[in-house]
Amino acid sequence: MSQVSLQRVRNLRSLRHQLLALRNSCYSTATEPSSSPHPPRVSNLIGGKFVDSHSTEEIDVVNPATQDVVSRLPLTLDTEFKAAVSAAKNAFPSWKNTPVTTRQRIMFKFQELIRRDMDKLAHNITIEQGKTLKDAQGDVFRGLEVVEHVCGMASLQLGEFSSNVSSGIDTYSIREPLGVCAGICPFNFPAMIPLWMFPVAVTCGNTFILKPSEKDPGASILLAELAMEAGLPDGVLNIVNGTEGVVNGICDDDDIRAVSFVGSNTAGMHIYARASAKGKRVQSNMGAKNHAIVLPDANEDATINALVAAGFGAAGQRCMALSTVVFVGDSKKWENKLVAHAKSLKVNAGTEPDADLGPVITKQAKERILRLIESGVGDGARLLLDGRNIVVPGYEHGNFVGPTLLSDVSTHMECYKEEIFGPVLLCLQADSLEEAISIVNRNKYGNGASIFTSSGAAARKFQSDIEAGQVGINVPIPVPLPFFSFTGSKASFAGDLNFYGKAGVQFYTQIKTVTQQWKDLPSGVSLAMPTSQKA
Fold first, then answer.
1. Is 202 helix (H, G, I), strand (E, B) or coil?
2. Where in the sequence numbering do the catalytic residues fall?
3. pTM of this prediction?
4. Are 247 and 49 in contact (CB under 8 A)?
């Protein structure tokens, strides 16, 4: 993640006033609460033009720290959705035949523009989603890394060739784009997740329909502006806003060949089942319950810092948040240090330079987090640190939950079974590494798991026996860089090909195999099965 100096964060506060001018732009959502009784409406992007929907149904995009309405998001009409798909379909033949080197150059320019507007993007994310400016910078930067990776698509998309497989016959395979693809995004990473999707898809030669989260669409709009400024042709990238209606439209439309989704298990399995039934490729990243196992020989300071950062960063609203820790042996010394470190974290609006964690996304999300904390206490968990009643001066109406620690948690408790998606760290105990691994493997989710130890033998056993798709050894959030793939497993993923990396390129392409013969054919006709054997 990129690091931002304290002075730079202070400077970012001044961007609030500069970005007020964006309110009246037809290109992007407002990034500040509007003093007008009619906040701006979020536009769709169809065929290279940002257009206002004719829908009269709207959803408020709300700043979670203040409850101010940032903008209003119309629920795209079916006719408008079909127009976006049609624009993508019409743009595909020309874009498919655009040389890959040209597509790469657009991505080179795109990543340059993202770097130029990093502060603007981060500020928009903080206003709409709530995370701190530093964390928002990281959100953008991790997506930017995917854009950088696809700048080498000419190499990533290479086929295979085998000469003279039979007498005078060569066979080769090529990777071709699918056509129109679509992405459905969550609220927790407004820049990173769209950048996991459309840069890979379009650089492979596909066209794309993007549905941002209805809770924070602004970053997607800003990224689309930059993609068009970089030279992406009209219709190659389209944006439609909405909720279930647009999601079902994406699943059902016969012209959409593949669907990427990141979000909850309920929505993810619905999309996977519905889109797969229509013959589409689907990759669906869903819920998680990421565990850390801490052995007695782990470095104390490094481990505590890692647990606090991974457990409470982004207010716990990460699919790779480290929400559960299993201590092997006595946990008391660890718990005392965890409480001390967690107490030192500053909860504040994300725009404030001293904020370590901001609010959760909605009042409903906060209520659910509080209910699961209360459920844990009711089931017998020990509340080491209670963040339920935190009040942030100046932001009294914000959706804030302070760092919370629950100890003596057992696997039958609802707070353990459910993904809390808030700044809550659960503490369990095990008598041995084998028991700890068994606890992790019995959990239905499989996004990631980590171990903290100074023993190479223990780390190797963990790596071998653990069933999570992404493994960290003294690394709390083992999300790979884009030359690998994001490899969640078990109930955390549905599909065959994961996001970005080699798997991402494979997901957005199909293989065509060509067998060719250039020689004078013998006279006569043989109806026997062709083989590599000479007659």
1. helix
2. 319
3. 0.92
4. no
